[in-house]
Structure formats: C-alpha cells, structure tokens
C-alpha cells in the first residue's frame, strides 16, 4: 500500500505484509525533520512457536513470535500523515490488545526524540496513545549496539565508490564514536551497552543542508536537492587552493591545488547573482561543505578520545554515495588513515530501534521482548522499499527478520 508519494517522503509498505500480518510493538522517534517508525509484524503463518533457542534469560521453551521489524518514515511537518498511517494499520489497537489493556485503559507507545515531548498531547488526542518517553541518546546508543551486534552486514565502509561490508568483532566493538547526523549532529563516545557520553555536537547538520539548500535552489524535496548534487560541480562555487595559488599546489602544508580553500568562496569575486549559478553546483558545494565539516569535527573528537572507529548514522546520509565518500575522505585525510569512517544500513532508525528495545527494559506487561535475533542477512530482503530518484544510491532500510521471545 503506497502511503503518499516521493514528495511526502513516506515509506511504502508491501500490501501483503502490512495489511494481513498481525502488527504489534510500535516505537517512534520524532525528530526535528523526520518521524521514524519501527514495528513488528508476525509472520502470516501464525509464527508463534516454542523456542528451540537457548535464550540467555532462561526463557528456553517459551513462546516465540517469528516475524519482521519494519521501518517507515514521515516528515515531522506532516505528522498527521503519520497519525493516519498508525490508525490505518491499527497498530494502536493491536498493541493495546497485546498488552492486555481494554479500550479504556492506558495505551503506551515508546517514543524518543524531541517530538515525544512536543507532540504528546496530539497523540493522546488523535489516537488515545500515551507516548512513553525514552531518552534520545539512550535510544541512539541502544539502536546502534543492537544493529552492530545482531544484524548481519549492517556496517560498511565507503571509499572511492566502493562499498565494503565490515565484519564486526563482537569482542572488539567498544569503544567507538557514534555520529548521528539528523537535523543537528550528536557525537557520542560509546564504551559499552548503556555506557556512553555525548562528547560533542554541531548545529551544522542535515537541517542546515536541507534548509539552506531549499532557500538557495528552490528545490521542493530533500531527494530533489540530493539528486541535483549528483550533477553539480562544486568548483564553480568553491574557491580552491589553486584559485589562490595560481593553479599550483601548496605542497609545504600538504594542500593540493584542487583542495577546497573556501567553500562558496568563489561567490565573493564572481560578480554574479544567485540566479547565475546552477542549482546543481550550489547543491554539490553545500553538501560537500557540510559533510566535510562533520567529517572533520568527528575526526577531532575521535582523536580527543583515541577512538579508531567512527560510525556515522542519521537520515542526512540517505546512503548517498557522494555524502559518504566526502565524510570518509575527510576522516581518512585528517587522521592520515588512522581512523575509519563506517556507515550503517539502517542509518536513520537507531533512535526508533532503541525505543523499540526499551519495551524489554521496562518489562512491558506480559509481552516482554527478551531477545531479538537476526535470522537472515536480508541482503535480498523482500521488505520495505524507499522510493526516490536516486534509488540505487539510497539505503534500502530493509526489514529485519527476527524473533521475539515472550515472557
Ligand atoms: N525525505 C526527507 N525529508 C526531509 N529531510 C530528509 C529526508 N531524507 C533525509 N533527510 C535529511 O535527514 C535529516 C533528518 O535526519 P534524522 O531523521 O536522522 O534527524 P531528526 O531526528 O529529524 O533530527 P534531530 O535528531 O536533530 O531532531 C534532515 O534534516 C535532512 O537533512
Ligand atoms: C538537539 C538534538 C539532540 C535533537 O535531536 C540534535 O538536533 C543535536 O544534537 N543538535 C546539535 C546541537 C549542538 O550540540 O550544537
């Protein structure tokens, strides 16, 4: 079932999975730009079996729900589309029934992000749902740890157009730097499960790219702005070292003639107006400026704490080759190859996944999620799709096969 179109940035849902399968356990991450949803649907064959897996909490032999985690997103500005979506899927109703609550009893859905506070009354009014607030940083870290530990082929490196999946050694995961690039950027040093510190952040993030880009190019959607950047040439807008040094490198300080000396610097001398620049060149320059800046600040924070691995997440990335490449090159350049930039397939859903995992933490009624197991690499998943003009370049946010162990 297609909900909205590309301009609405709404994830489509395969009809057979969403309308027929039993859906439960919804969690939300309501950010400054986007609302992210994670929900579990039981496989249509019933999918409730006795566990044959040894579960660490001693739940061996308990009921197991076989199914999938699904992902969807909406623009925060179109929160009513999200509310309609939840209503259409009857997520609330099944969630409440599962939790053994009658229609009049309190129905709590886990939610994180600033919107869990800002829109609490709206959810109560429109859906009768209470948003159970989970801390945003806690949720980001829980989501990242879950993805890195339990989901096969989740992390990858991106360099010179080459995407390479990284094998994560579970014994050697910590410490790492998590850089979440949403509207703004949070940098979190993660030392273990639930052990972390937000060490830095920057207000020059995804919201800056989309906001400034929209004003400068008149683009109507984020994907359109991203698509433009594919075709642009930043050298028309940026002032390069060679522009300043008469075409030569500045070897002594390690700067080649093609390095950007000043983003948007050409615009000061060109005697041109905004209309004289191609929107695609502006988009590319802006994307490069922001990605480069985030890459550099991330590296400096990794250096500060001696961290070798930096995982980048957040929907600014959108699995976009040029963005990831710019960030990876910045980290590589500044660290002289010492630190590594890594990316995640479910980049934008860390917070929502973390909120989802928190059902377990709070021992929600009798439907306690004890453990989630990724059962297949889901490289050729038949799950959710993201539609966009640069589809081949965008991350696919595949659904994740998993089991939920009940108490
Ligand atoms: N379809 C889209 N519509 C709007 N922005 C998009 C879209 N796809 C990607 N983006 C980018 O992703 C950013 C939002 O990322 P994300 O959802 O991770 O953060 P957020 O939770 O909204 O922000 P914050 O955590 O700062 O509150 C936007 O600012 C924009 O740069
Ligand atoms: C304010 C949050 C945490 C909201 O998600 C995010 O947008 C952010 O980390 N902004 C950067 C703020 C700063 O550290 O300058």
UniProtKB/TrEMBL annotation:
Example GO molecular function: ATP binding
Pfam family, one: Fumble
Gene3D superfamilies named in the record: 3.30.420.40
Coiled coil: none
Protein's organism: Rosa chinensis
InterPro entries the record matches: ATPase_NBD (IPR043129), Type_II_PanK (IPR004567)
Record's protein name: pantothenate kinase
Keyword hit for ATP-binding: yes
Chemical reaction(s) catalysed: (R)-pantothenate + ATP = (R)-4'-phosphopantothenate + ADP + H(+)
């Amino acid at each position: 079932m297609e909900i909205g179109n590309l301009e609405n940035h709404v994830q489509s849902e395969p009809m057979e999975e969403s309308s027929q399968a039993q859906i439960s356990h919804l969690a939300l991450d309501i950010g400054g730009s986007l609302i992210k949803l994670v929900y579990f649907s039981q496989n249509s064959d019933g999918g409730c079996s006795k566990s044959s897996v040894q579960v660490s909490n001693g739940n061996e032999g308990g009921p197991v729900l076989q199914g999938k985690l699904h992902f969807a997103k909406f623009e925060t500005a179109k929160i009513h589309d999200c509310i309609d979506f939840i209503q259409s899927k009857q997520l609330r109703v099944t969630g409440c029934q599962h939790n053994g609550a009658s229609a009049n009893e309190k129905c709590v859905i886990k939610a994180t992000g600033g919107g869990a506070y800002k829109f609490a009354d709206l959810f109560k009014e429109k859906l009768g749902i209470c948003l159970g607030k989970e801390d945003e940083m806690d949720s980001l870290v829980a989501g990242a740890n879950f993805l890195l530990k339990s989901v096969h082929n989740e992390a990858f490196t991106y360099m010179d157009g080459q995407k390479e999946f990284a094998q994560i050694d579970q014994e050697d995961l910590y410490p790492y730097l998590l850089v979440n690039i949403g509207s703004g950027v949070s940098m979190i040093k993660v030392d273990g499960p639930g052990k972390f510190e937000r060490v830095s952040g920057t207000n020059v993030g995804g919201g800056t790219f989309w906001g400034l880009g929209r004003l400068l190019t008149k683009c109507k959607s984020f994907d359109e702005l991203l698509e433009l950047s594919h075709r642009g040439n930043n050298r028309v807008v940026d002032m390069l070292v060679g522009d300043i040094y008469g075409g030569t490198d500045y070897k002594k300080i390690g700067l080649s003639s093609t390095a950007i000396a000043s983003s948007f610097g050409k615009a000061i001398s060109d005697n041109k107006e905004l209309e004289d620049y191609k929107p695609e060149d502006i988009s590319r320059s802006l994307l490069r400026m922001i990605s480069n800046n985030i890459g550099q600040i991330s590296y400096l924070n990794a250096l500060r704490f001696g961290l070798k691995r930096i995982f980048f997440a957040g929907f600014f990335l959108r699995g976009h080759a040029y963005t990831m490449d710019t960030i990876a090159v910045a980290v590589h350049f500044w660290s002289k190859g010492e630190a590594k930039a890594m990316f995640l397939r479910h980049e934008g859903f860390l917070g929502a996944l973390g909120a989802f995992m928190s059902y377990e933490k709070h021992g929600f009624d009798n439907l306690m999620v004890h453990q989630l197991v990724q059962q297949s690499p889901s490289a050729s998943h038949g799950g959710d799709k993201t539609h966009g003009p640069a589809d081949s370049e965008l991350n696919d946010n595949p659904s994740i096969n998993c089991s939920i162990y009940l108490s």
